[in-house]
Design brief:
With 71 residues, the protein is an all-alpha fold. 87% of the residues lie in helices and 0% in strands. It contains one helix and no strands. The longest helix is centred in the middle third of the chain and has 62 residues, at 2-63. It starts with a helix and ends in an 8-residue tail after the last helix.
Length: 71
């Protein structure tokens, strides 16, 4: 009987520890997401600006008058 009670107590403690770790992991993930999200947004904005500048540069290059060389 004592062994049975010991096994039940160990199982309950293990379940509590597992549940506590699960909560800590979820909290850590939320912290990481809240930290990284603004940085990702900023990087996306910078990339979008760079892409528009590249597109503008390409259109200027293709629309520029062609130079003729005189001999």
């Amino acid at each position: 009987m004592l062994v049975f009670i010991s096994i039940i107590v160990i199982a309950v403690v293990a379940a509590l520890v597992y549940n506590n770790n699960k909560k800590k992991i979820a909290e850590t993930i939320e912290k990481v997401e809240s930290t990284i999200a603004p940085a990702v947004k900023e990087v996306k904005e910078v990339v979008a600006k760079a892409e528009t500048e590249i597109a503008k540069a390409k259109t200027k290059k293709t629309n520029a008058p062609k130079k003729t060389t005189k001999k």
